[in-house]
Amino acid sequence: MELRDEQIEDFRRQGYLRLGALFDEEELATIAREYDRLVRKEEQVLGNEEQGVFPYRAMLNFRSPELSQFILHPRLVAIAQKILGEEVRFWWDQGINKSPGAGSPIAWHQDNGYQQGRTQEFLTCWLALDASERSNGGLQVIPGSHTAGHREHRWEGVHAVIPPVGLDTKAAVDLDVGPGELLIFSSLLVHQTLGNRTQDRQRRSWVIQYCRGDQHNEVTGEVYDNRPWVLRDGKVVDELRAERPFHLVRDHA
Ligand SMILES: O=C(O)CCC(=O)C(=O)O
Fold it and tell me: Which of 61, 159, 210, 233 is least enclosed by beta carbons within 10 angstroms?
């Protein structure tokens, strides 16, 4: 898929873009099978017991050769290339299954909030494996909110969230999508997902993020060279490999 100039303009202005179906049925079936094997409440959950927890797993690509191949999928990488340029690294991936009745939200935040303003904007690709709308924990975004730059976040448990005081959410919109549809957004776009209020409709997302090759920590100056290359000099690499290993716990953020 080649992003058109108007789509890129839209993305720059609004901070997000709907890209529809990117993968074919067989590819989606492979993703869903591997996802369901890995993202299970027996492994890890997010949310709180009162409102209801839901399965979560970080770095599915570490645990599944099939999923790691999707990070290098030419159609996905072509999108990252248009937005980020000719030198691209993989930043992070995670599976989030807002399971039926799991009421815990993931409150308003920017994906950059997890680095507390220490790094530059990057790109989030949000793949819906199920129909996703407000009632089952779909995405809500504040269009254009990425243009105001980094916002202050505070930690609420494991989540970096924007304190509600001073956050104007009147312009927020729901980004409802069908199964297999892809949304992309700026890591500076303010977004949230509410709880899943349905009794029978899970809402699985696979979130894949890419950054520029020279993405760095603005405090230490250190390049994130523990993030594997995806695109070098405009060419997709054969396998995900970084200059040094990534440690899931130590290197998160
Ligand atoms: O998929 C979700 O429920 C939340 C996604 C999100 O907010 C994020 O990945 O930062």
Answer: 233
